[in-house]
Write a structure and sequence with these properties.
The chain has 745 residues and is of the alpha/beta class. The chain is 52% helix and 8% strand. The chain contains 31 helices and 15 strands. A 9-stranded mixed β-sheet has the order 3-2-1-4-5-6-7-14-15, with helices on one face. Strands 10-9-8-11-12-13 form a 6-stranded parallel β-sheet, with helices on both faces. Helix 21 links the parallel strand 1 and strand 2. Helix 2 packs antiparallel against helix 3 and helix 14 packs antiparallel against helix 15. It is elongated, with a radius of gyration of 30 Å. The relative contact order is 0.06.
């Protein structure tokens, strides 16, 4: 057999190996073919394709460059070059290569398909969809193009259409593991995690070590509240692909759900060692450490995250950042970065300017916390008190139904109570449009269980950020934030993307029906000294930082026999804070920890404390209201952003502004004075007891009239076709429910 005939036979053998997926053997035989018949374009192009499938992109690129030196109009080489460039993170160069291939061969379906992938990478999904549709017009049974089309539709927030595209691909190619994997992602977007799990399992039956499918399988299990199984799936993904950053990040989510915080810290450290610039990872690591009160390198980490956020980097999530930064401007920047990445405005809004005409204003409250939860504890009374002659109130429940006493109470409080936990963001937005909701109030913001994607579809004429998240959402589709003159002074407007509604007393609603357990335990029963002064702080542990802990330890040093009573979120906190106390010269036994108990019991036990000490930059919010409702005075230091000004707002509204300080020195001095002067403290407690029933803070009906006046003004502006604008609601005493116009900002 001559060399040419031998080369031809080798080429056919290589094609057969390539077709079977035996890539290493195919590579070897293609190379043997080239040794016999050098610079054969068909062989070189096929070898380049094998290199791409083996993820050896640099070797493939060299072959393509050589082919194009031989023939600049080799459309296959241009296609393969583009595929290499796309994999090497050069999507712009890849797009140029695909366009050159299409100039040579205008109906080249493979180039149109790959061009769609490049455009998607370049964040041009609408153009990507057009390119893929052109590929399918040429080749209707092109499974890979249908799969890629599904990916584009997911990016365009059209998960239902994406699912249909994946199903078309699978009808053509039933064993297409990648399409099964992407189909699972579409099902997750549609809030169908059980079906998503089944799709990932089908993909894994075809491709056992499919790390991406194992990773997303873990995400589906997290959605199904099966964190142990999710963790096992992430670990399988990492066993297959040890440097898989996404799996490490998601593994952290499972560990967080399991409250295995020390392992979470180690997992985040591993993530940053693999990919130091992984989105939000530095912030997630700091937050995990703050949850454990592990403060090594705290100042450096906080400064780095603030610096990166100011530079426009994805350094932290907005909620975590509240406990890191005191800058409203930086918090706005953090929210804008996060929204642009995770929750951009949908291309097609569901409400497009239609005027609704109803007898009553239709208000929908969106929350994942309509159950036994701090937010529900605050707002339940408002839901019950709303004036049903003027307002129709709808609950949009995004969270779990725990079938508890609060859930039962809330179900009875609304005109409609709709569980949307199994609906996609787009489906919920369409539901709000169908219900002709006038005002949609997001009670979640960026807290756990949030779904800003619903309002990103412009689900209602007026969309409001209220209560759950103490800061700006940074989204242009959120029209208003409800505040007061304390939490958002007029000069702070530049730190908010929303227009500001000023309520006259305090932005925070409170429920005047909250119960306190009849039985108050003894100090001895809770491990507290019978005679010593009890400072306390029942804020979540991540709000405690070294600066405030320094002050607290100095107070213990100054007040003989005093103790500090804190909430125990996890065992690591106990160990770390007692160690930090000893480092500051305070016996570890003087830091005492309380377990979580039912709210009625928690309120009752606060009567055993003498003084609540607040935190900064993230104040006590619900916990401050709890303390004041239980008769426990709160000393706060006012900060410069919303989250650091809430306790001051509460104290103003309960008539105790003298407990607000503006520096750490004043904070410490006031706490020391109150600990030393029992008569002064007793007088403050007596006034608090009196003010609880006479001042605005706990007057639910007064608050109801104010927020309803705000809703009326928002609605009237919309009815007149006027854009959102900041305004102040006056205190309502004579039934005058007009709002005072606020100067345009």
């Amino acid at each position: 057999m001559d060399r040419l005939a031998e080369a031809k036979q080798l080429f056919l053998d290589a094609l057969a190996l390539h077709e079977r997926g035996d890539l290493e053997q195919a590579k070897r035989v293609y190379q043997e073919t080239l040794a016999l018949a050098p610079e054969r374009p068909s062989v070189m192009n096929n070898l380049a394709a094998v290199f791409i499938e083996l993820k050896k992109y640099s070797e493939a690129k060299l072959l393509c460059v050589r082919l194009l030196e031989m023939n600049p109009e080799d459309e296959t080489a241009l296609l393969n070059l583009g595929n290499c460039q796309l994999k090497l993170d050069s999507a712009g160069e890849a797009l140029l290569s695909y366009d050159k291939a299409l100039r040579v061969k205008p109906g080249y379906a493979d180039a149109l398909n790959s061009r769609g992938s490049a455009l998607l990478e370049l964040k041009r999904p609408q153009e990507a969809l057009e390119s893929l549709d052109r590929a399918l017009a040429v080749k209707p049974d092109y499974a890979e193009a249908l799969n890629n089309r599904g990916n584009v539709l997911l990016e365009l927030k059209r998960p239902g259409d994406a699912l249909a595209s994946y199903d078309r691909a699978l009808a053509i190619k039933p064993d297409y593991a990648e399409a099964l994997y992407n189909r699972g992602s579409g099902l997750l977007e549609l809030k169908r995690p059980q079906e998503a799990l089944a799709s990932y399992d089908r993909a894994l039956a075809i491709k056992r070590d499919y790390a991406e499918a194992l990773n997303n399988r873990g995400n589906a299990l997290l959605e199904l509240n099966r964190p142990e199984e999710a963790l096992a799936s992430f670990d399988r993904a990492l066993a297959t692909k040890p440097d898989y950053a996404d799996a490490l990040n998601n593994r952290g989510n499972a560990l967080l759900e399991l409250n295995r915080l020390e392992e979470l810290i180690e997992s985040h450290r591993n993530l940053l060692s693999i990919k130091p610039d992984y989105d939000y990872a530095r912030g997630y690591l700091l937050h995990a450490r703050m949850q454990c009160c592990e403060w090594a390198e705290y100042d450096e980490s906080a400064a780095k995250i603030s610096e990166d956020t100011a530079a426009g980097k994805r350094a932290d999530s907005p909620f975590n950042f509240l406990a890191v930064s005191e800058s409203a401007a930086d918090q706005l920047r953090c929210s804008r970065i996060f929204v642009a990445d995770k929750y951009p405005a949908a291309a097609q809004p569901v409400w497009r300017g239609e005027q609704y005409s109803h007898d009553r204003i239709r208000v929908a409250y969106l929350s994942a916390d309509l159950r036994r939860h701090a937010v529900a504890n605050l707002i339940a009374g408002l839901f019950e008190a709303h004036d049903r002659t003027r307002f129709e109130i709808t609950a949009i429940s995004m969270g779990p139904d725990e079938n508890d006493e609060m859930r039962t109470r809330l179900r009875a409080a609304f005109n409609r109570f709709i569980d949307v936990s199994s609906k996609s963001d787009q489906e919920v937005a369409l539901l709000l449009r169908e219900l002709e909701i006038d005002i949609a109030v997001d009670l979640q913001g960026f807290t756990k269980g949030c779904r800003p994607g619903i309002l990103s579809h412009r689900a209602a004429p007026v969309q409001v950020n209220y209560l759950g998240y103490p800061g700006t959402m940074g989204a242009h589709y959120i029209d208003y934030i409800i505040g007061d003159r304390c939490v958002i002074p007029r000069e702070h407007h530049s730190g908010y993307a929303e227009k500001v509604i000023y309520l006259p007393d305090c932005y925070q609603v409170n429920d005047s029906k909250r119960k306190i357990a009849a039985h108050t335990p003894t100090r001895a029963e809770l491990g507290l000294p019978e005679q010593g002064f009890v400072f306390c702080c029942f804020n979540n542990n991540h709000k405690i930082n070294p600066r405030v802990f320094d002050v607290w330890m100095r107070l213990l040093n100054e007040v003989q026999g005093s103790v500090l009573w804190l909430l125990e979120d996890n065992g690591t906190v106990v160990r770390n804070l007692r160690h930090e106390a000893e480092r500051r010269g305070i016996a570890s036994g003087r830091v005492i920890f309380a377990q979580r108990v039912k709210m009625e019991e928690h309120l009752a036990r606060q009567r055993l404390a003498d003084l609540f000490l607040d935190t900064l930059p993230y104040n006590a919010h619900v916990t401050a209201s709890d303390a004041l409702w239980a008769g426990l005075p709160v000393v706060t230091r006012i900060g410069s952003a919303f989250a650091g000004r809430v306790a001051a707002s509460l104290l103003n509204a309960v008539g105790l502004p003298e407990l607000i300080t503006s520096s750490w020195e004043d904070y410490e001095a006031l706490a020391l004075k109150l600990a030393a002067d029992r008569e002064l403290l007793a007088d403050i407690k007596a006034r608090l007891a009196q003010h609880r029933g006479t001042y605005p803070l706990f007057n639910t009906d007064r608050f109801r009239r104010h927020i309803e006046a705000a809703y009326v003004t928002m609605w009237e502006r919309g009815q007149r076709g006027e854009p959102p604008a900041s305004f102040a609601v006056p205190g309502l005493f004579q039934g005058d429910e007009r709002a005072i116009p606020w100067p345009a900002i």
